[in-house]
Amino acid sequence: MMDKNFIKEINKRRTFAIISHPDAGKTTLTEKFLLYGGAIRLAGSVKSRKTQKHAVSDWMEIEKQRGISVTSSVMQFNYDGACINILDTPGHQDFSEDTYRTLTAADSAVMVIDCAKGVEPQTKKLFRVCKDRNIPIFTFINKLDRAGKDPFELMEEIEKVLGIQSYPMNWPIGTDGDFKGVYNRQKKRIELYQDGDHGQNIAKIVSKDLDDEGLADILGADYYQRLKDEVELLDMAGDDFDHDKVQNGELTPLFFGSAMTNFGVEPFLESFLKLTYKPEARNSNQGLIPPEDPNFSGFIFKIQANMNPAHRDRLAFIRICSGKFEKGMSVYNSRTGKKIRLAQPQQFLAQDREIVDTAYPGDIIGLHDPGLFKISDTLSEADPSLKYEKIPVFPPEHFSKIIPKNSMKRKQFLKGIQQLAEEGAIQVFKRPNIGIEEYIVGVVGVLQFQVLEYRLKNEYSVDIIMESMPHRYIRWIEMEGYDPDRFNATMDSMLVEDHEGNPAIILQNEWSIGKIEDRNTGVVLKDIYKKD
Ligand code: G4P
User: Which family is this sequence assigned to (predicted)?
Assistant: First the structure.
């Protein structure tokens, strides 16, 4: 029998990833979401942010002190009857493959763009992974309190650079640093911007209809006329709002606002909740598994090592896909066939980690991991053979050759790099047929090299020599009858095999990719590699 409360809890769930290029305002916006959800009383103000940078998102104080923050944080808050899970995707130097993997656990994404900078490289990379999954993507154009690009130009840029159409839900008035507010196209009203309290408190919105005569006085005749013209143009020339397209990730609802001053944050949350649904069924080797399936199941998308160096424990993050999670329950790991008791699960509420008793589809929990889990493992209460789709391998952008300083330590060295590769911290490659033993490590963000060095030394007592390579791109090779000795590569590239023996090529220049395709008939080159 279906438990009514169980269904209610599922229907309440929304799980989204927040993506952006560093400095676009992701942390600030996250703080404001938490503020509206009542999870924190005071969002970081302009003043206090200087002293507590990344106050809420970086809950891993220990890692921060070491300067090796390898986390993507997870936060849960309640807003207007919904239970929202935010998956943060770390941006600065701590950009890593984990950042990409985190996106596989989300049901939708919120993309933050700086209005003066437009679409930046990291946004592009993260967007691409979301687009591949066809999940709904919402765009928040931030920092409207400052001068920015023309909004039509931003729309064009989103379409050109990201390949997605956008539908402005509101439209800004004054984008040259003279921000007056926005026109809300759904509610057909003006929401006036009032600065003053630096976003310490919940913003006030003053409503006025677009035809209200008094608007010319409030906005100024020029601003009023321009707004009317622009909204008319949008209504006439722009696309219609199509909810199905939003749902399939073909149209992104566009919101203009200013996270720092709170402007536009609450209307954004309201629309987001209206336009998104509860967690969907997930694909597995047994077909689609709906969240309402009474048996608990989920998959591991991230393994966080050394949360607490004193205990040297690991935390495996699981995205719950079906059923109800209860503390202490026993589940199968379908990779090993073994049953595991989930004793000390943790959940993440704003600043705190707490022991969780129950959790529902859409939720993310952290499981204590003494080495039991790998990325992509499926855990299931009832079915030892259930497997969710494997998480793809994402392209490293930096490569180094590594060897142990002391050749006597070869065994520990190999064990170390193998375990770190399994955890997903690094990717390990070899060159085929060269007759000498040589290891190449690939990472998404350069900080991972330091993590590697640090962890090999601390956990495996191995010092290494690392030689950085000029390669920046990788493509996995799919080709009938592939033979590395006969493959026609370019001068700037190198043929390799990943740790499972899959052929790949690393390159220094992006334009070589096309050349390689031209020179090798029938070759398919893939930058995101999906294994069966
Ligand atoms: P991130 O997580 O995407 O990296 O960005 P974060 O929120 O840390 O914001 C980056 C900078 O942009 C911060 O300034 C932040 O205060 C500012 N910011 C965020 N939203 C807005 C906005 O709506 N308007 C304006 N004008 N600025 C905004 P900072 O000087 O780097 O840090 P701090 O001194 O404020 O701590």
Answer: Belongs to the TRAFAC class translation factor GTPase superfamily. Classic translation factor GTPase family. PrfC subfamily.
